[in-house]
Design a protein that fits this description.
This protein has 420 residues and is α/β, with parallel strands linked by helices. 40% of the residues are buried. The strands form two sheets. It has a seven-stranded mixed β-sheet, with helices on both faces. A two-stranded antiparallel ribbon has the order 8-9. The protein contains 15 helices and nine strands. Helix 6 packs across helix 7 (180-197). The structure holds guanosine-5'-diphosphate and magnesium ion. The site of guanosine-5'-diphosphate (GDP) has 21 residues, from helix 2.
């Protein structure tokens, strides 16, 4: 009898577990965008081993997994959250050494979900951000015959919506201090990275990591950045990329520190050492992800016919058709159609594109007056929910844009252009 009871109990437990699991795996029922889902923007981060990719990611997630004054927060699948938090904890603990780096040639892939809360308190998904981190190896090493890593990487770079080029601030420090090895490594990795970047036409954010190690270059931060930019421009590939591409794509240079000032310094052997009992205060970690959507839309806007776009935007202001989002969807399809390669893949997400275009393009007032007039109308319950979600989503997009605006205000040199 005993084995039978055990078997029955086990079977019941399995059924319950199975039910719980399938409930968890099934996407939460949402009245909004259920028919269209949530778009995924794919980001590829390239950078040599040791350049600070993992720490940046860990800091980024640690800070962005809570609201902290933003209208959104990030979530990730449970296994990824555990890993990211483990790295963060290991970095933050000044009694421990740095966590070990990514193995040569390996890639790491994460998916973040951007979530927001609507006025009623309901949580909504706004978009997914796919993040592929690619470590050095393949950038410079010859590949063993039969390996597919390289072809796969090239395909992902070509189809990425945004690229991050990670530049190791420690190597810049070494170069400025006259260490030939640092200079050599820096040039080598920049050249490899830039030849890959030439394959795509997406916005590029060059991220200078370990900015804390460069603080003594100049007291003024923008002057510091200007000096580093001038130095980077001495790399021919970098200069070529900026000069040839900055007129039709967005190119940024963002200094970040995963640990912040006063957490670490170079020791007598020129190694990065943690200072005892210091707190981490990461800086600018949120810019690379915040810039993705505004930069794609800016690039698309630049390529669009000004007059036609204005007409489409004005139409949403006047549109009298019933059903919230109808005019936005129309604007969205127009954007997808004109944007071609950059946003064409998002054609099914017309409501998202319409919202983003209204929020990020040109005259932002048009859309506001539209919102007001539609709020004045009598809306059904379902319409009201969609309306509310739209407003929350627009707020997130505006937050992304204003983060970028604030940074450009503080560090005008972070925008790279052919005049440099
Ligand atoms: N001072 C300072 N050091 C950093 C920072 N980020 C990374 N490092 C150092 O660089 C090492 C390599 O970083 P990691 O993120 O593992 O590089 P990855 O190989 O590109 O993933 C770390 O162990 C730290 O010693 C930073 O923001 N400031
Ligand atoms: Mg790593």
């Amino acid at each position: 009898v005993a084995p039978l009871i055990v078997a029955v109990v086990l079977a019941v437990a399995l059924v319950i577990l199975g039910a719980l699991r399938s409930r968890r795996l099934r996407p939460a029922p949402s009245p909004v965008g259920a028919d269209e889902g949530v778009p995924t923007f794919r980001v590829v981060a390239l950078g040599p081993r040791g350049s600070g990719k993992t720490l940046l990611l860990a800091s980024m997630y640690h800070q962005m997994q809570t609201w902290s004054g933003r209208s959104y927060f990030l979530t990730a699948p449970f296994e990824q959250v555990v890993l990211l938090n483990q790295w963060f904890t290991a970095v933050a603990d000044t009694s421990l050494d740095w966590p070990s780096g990514t193995a040569v040639g390996s890639t790491r892939e994460l998916t973040f979900t951007v979530r927001t809360r609507a006025a009623s308190g309901a949580l909504h998904e706004v978009m997914h951000l796919g993040y592929l981190e690619y470590a050095g190896g393949l950038l410079t090493d010859a590949q063993a015959p039969g390996e597919t890593g390289q072809a796969d990487l090239l395909r992902r770079i070509e189809s990425a919506h945004a690229l991050l080029g990670i530049i190791d601030g420690y190597r810049i420090r070494q170069s400025l201090d006259g260490h030939p090895e640092g200079h050599m490594r820096l040039q080598q990795s920049m050249t490899a990275m830039i030849s890959l970047m030439m394959l795509s036409s997406s916005p590029i954010t060059f991220v200078i990591t370990k900015w804390d190690l460069l603080r003594d270059i100049d007291v003024d931060e923008d002057a510091r950045l200007r000096q580093v930019r001038k130095f980077l421009m001495s790399n021919q590939g970098f200069r070529d990329l900026v000069q040839a591409h900055s007129s039709h794509r967005v190119v940024r240079l963002i200094p970040v520190s995963a640990v912040g000032p006063d957490f670490a310094e170079l020791d007598a052997h020129g190694m990065v050492a943690k200072l005892p009992d210091e707190q981490m205060r990461p800086t600018n970690f949120d810019v690379p992800l915040s810039a993705v959507v505004p930069d794609i839309f800016e690039q698309v806007e630049r390529s669009m016919d000004r007059a036609k776009l204005q007409a489409a935007l004005a139409r949403i202001g006047r549109e009298a058709r019933p059903g919230p989002g109808a005019a936005f969807a129309e604007l969205g399809s127009y954007v997808a159609q004109v944007a071609g390669k950059a946003l064409g893949a998002f054609a099914p997400y017309t409501a998202f594109l319409g919202d983003a275009a209204a929020e990020l393009f040109g005259d932002r007032d048009v859309a506001v007056s539209d919102r007001q007039s539609r709020l004045d109308r009598q809306l059904t319950e379902a319409e009201r929910t969609i309306e509310e979600f739209q407003i929350a989503r627009r707020k997130v997009l505006r937050d992304f844009q204003s983060r970028v605006d604030v940074l450009e205000g503080q560090l005008p040199s972070s925008r790279l252009s052919s005049e440099d």
